[in-house]
Amino acid sequence: MSKSRPAWIGIDLGGTKIFGVVLRGDEVTAEAKRKTPVGTGPDRVVETIAGVVEDLGGLHAAGGVGVGAPGAVDHERGTVRRAPNLPGFDEEVGLAALLSKSLGGAEVRLDNDVNAGVLAEHRMGAGQGARDLLGVWVGTGVGGGVVLDGVVRRGPTGIAGEIGHTVVHPGGRICGCGFPGHLEAYAGRGSMEREARDRHARGTATLLVDLADGDRGSARGPGRMTSGVWAKALAGGDAVAEELIDDAVAALGAAVVSAATLLDLSTVVIGGGLGDKLGPSFAGRIEQAARDAFYIRGSSLRVVSAQLGDRAGAIGAALMAADR
Amino acid sequence: MSKSRPAWIGIDLGGTKIFGVVLRGDEVTAEAKRKTPVGTGPDRVVETIAGVVEDLGGLHAAGGVGVGAPGAVDHERGTVRRAPNLPGFDEEVGLAALLSKSLGGAEVRLDNDVNAGVLAEHRMGAGQGARDLLGVWVGTGVGGGVVLDGVVRRGPTGIAGEIGHTVVHPGGRICGCGFPGHLEAYAGRGSMEREARDRHARGTATLLVDLADGDRGSARGPGRMTSGVWAKALAGGDAVAEELIDDAVAALGAAVVSAATLLDLSTVVIGGGLGDKLGPSFAGRIEQAARDAFYIRGSSLRVVSAQLGDRAGAIGAALMAADR
Lengths: 324, 324
Hints:
With about 325 residues, the first copy, chain A, is of the alpha/beta class. Chain A is built from 10 helices and 12 strands.
């Protein structure tokens, strides 16, 4: 850690917390977080991000700020819209400009949070050394990001990388977005939970529901079917969990091999809450499923687990700021 | 047509013919073709290409030569291997170097024939004005090419664009490559013919077989189920043809929407023998199938017919030569 190397602040704007890091070279030298203010609109969110920047030592020690945000981000214009879990961010919000103003005119770069996470894995994590990288973030939904020849592909409307909404079963399960057959409908934890609860309601016992709802009893309503619950149910040999994870692996394998074929990729990183929790064995199963359908025999396609955990988004945001 | 603009020679190396053009600016000023010598190996093929170059007026009038070849092409090294329908090109052949030598040291650029065709449609055909373009070539097999930010994506091993081997139905119909569920197994004319003949053999009457085999009688064996046969059977309301084309459209729609989502594409061109024969109505049906599964509502995704026909490959090869 050398004070002579420039430092950059990276912020991961999440639905529950705003997490920030100071990145100096490839070292995280400070971390801070605050709760995301809910239901109070963009101004309070901007104020809270500025607070996290202050917690990190303020801007005098950093060259600039990068922010990773959920939703549809226009990287060039610094705007975000359709951000799930961020009330007030349905319509387009000029987040980069608002934050810049709040920080006294500092330069602010904005990108999709998954793009930021994938960039971090490419530069400093599981994708180091790869020229091209596909990142698949498996959490409540399924997000993704594509790095081609070292550069994040954003695309003219900013949706590039959204592998969760690629089609793996034409006419199949309805995705949260309303359309049929998308990867997210098979591999997103939200869809998998709906499927598990449906089966439970139809009389199939499953540890998933027992573990999620615990001894709450029906009066308190359902609990959270977290990634940890999925891991425990799998460890306990639960048939419903195994079957749904098998479906997820098959769907992820299909999406991965299709992307790898179309773009000639050799490295894929699996991250996100569920991806991180299930770890290398999950990534390995996806690799096998992809190879089983890959027309290049003896391919060197690797599917590996992300290494940076939930700090990836903030680290990637700092890298974006440094890339200006 | 101005003699002051430089001219480039483009060659499309096919399994039955070698077709060449002289491209000056965006005008084709000469065309020539010879039959591809079969069963005699790379040297005779090189000699025949050199003959076509001679037919086109020779190299003194052109700045260089581009060649589009089937199979796995290494653009950087100028080699081709695994070329279907070109005996002697299974193992790697240094085609660019051999041809250059045969042409007295002229510069020769080599690329995959479909990449060349897609580049031509991007610059001078249906994809003009688009920043990014996916081309899907529907013929005996299904090939493809991707242009991102104006540049053909080749990828480190040269397979980029091979959308025919992306997965549309995990575990589904076996592709010619031996793996299950690929687009080509549903939309390649070879696979579709196998499927039609299977159904015919199991007792389902179809114009496809009647038209293909004509009055040959069983003694002469099956005839060719050409793109024209498919068009006629569809026009005649043949149920098997309609069903198989419906399957092809659904599979193409799924592959197209997945690629458009992953890369944030707005323009897709459908070419190839069958694609050209079935024309704009086929492209329109693929567009509708893609939009029906696209998570961006009101998207401006366009799927259009190729405009350059079977000259696209040679024109694109000339453009590659000019791009050196």
